[in-house]
Amino acid sequence: MSTTYSISDLAKEFDLTTRAIRFYEDLGLLQPERTGPGGRNRVYSGRDRTRLKLTLRAKRLGLSLTEAKDIIEMYDSPRDTGAQLQKFLDVLAAHRKQVEEQMADLQANLDEIKVHQREAKALLAKSELKISKPVAKALATKPAAKAVGKKAA
Fold first, then answer.
1. Is 31 helix (H, G, I), strand (E, B) or coil?
2. Does 18 have pLDDT greater than 70?
3. Could you count the other beta carbons within 10 Å of the beta carbon of residue 89?
4. What is the pLDDT of residues 54-70, one digit of tens each?
5. Hey, how many other C-beta atoms are within 10 angstroms of the C-beta on 42?
6. What confidence category does residue 39 fall into, taking pLDDT thresholds of 50, 70 and 90?
7. Residue 12 half-sphere exposure, CB side, CA atoms within 13 Å?
8. Which terminus of the chain is more exposed, N or C, with fewer CB under 10 A?
């Protein structure tokens, strides 16, 4: 007899909500058996557990759930393994290209932020210098002004 899992077993093992697992079921990624009155209880097989694990791995890689489903279903079918692996490589290559483009965009954004930070720091230093010059000048001239004022009196 093969091992079966309840929805709460899988939720606990993979740190998911039962709602997330039902969502994956709605997408056709999982196909539990239904038991109990009105088929209200879900019983997940080892195959469902593996499919859930692969789905979560695909999500971590940044693949869409549709891409995950396509890849997972490839492995369920009795087709040629070479074609399956090539499809998987094609999906990964396309996703890698997309991630690299996003990284380039993020790096450009980060570089622009650094430029603005340098400019803002330079402007701040300049404004602090302008503020401190008059203060220094006023401090330097006040004693002289008092001395001048005393001479005039």
1. coil
2. yes
3. 10
4. 999 999 988 889 888 88
5. 23
6. confident
7. 5
8. N
| DSSP state at residue 39 | G
- Biggest alpha carbon–alpha carbon distance for the chain: 113
Instruction: Specify the DSSP element, H or E, that contains 4.
Output: strand 4-5
Tokens of 153: 């009196």
Q: Cα–chain-centroid distance for residue 121?
A: 30
How many other C-beta atoms are found inside a 10 Å radius of the C-beta of residue 144? 9
Do 49 and 5 touch, CB atoms closer than 8 A?
A: yes
List, as one string, the DSSP characters of 65-134.
HHHHHHHHHHHHS-S-HHHHHHHHHHHHHHHHHHHHHHHHHHHHHHHHHHHHHHHHHHHHHHHHHHHHHH
CA distance 117 to 123: 10
> CATH second-level architecture of 4-62?
Orthogonal Bundle (1.10)
User: What is this structure's pTM?
Assistant: 0.61
Residue 129 has a pLDDT of 75
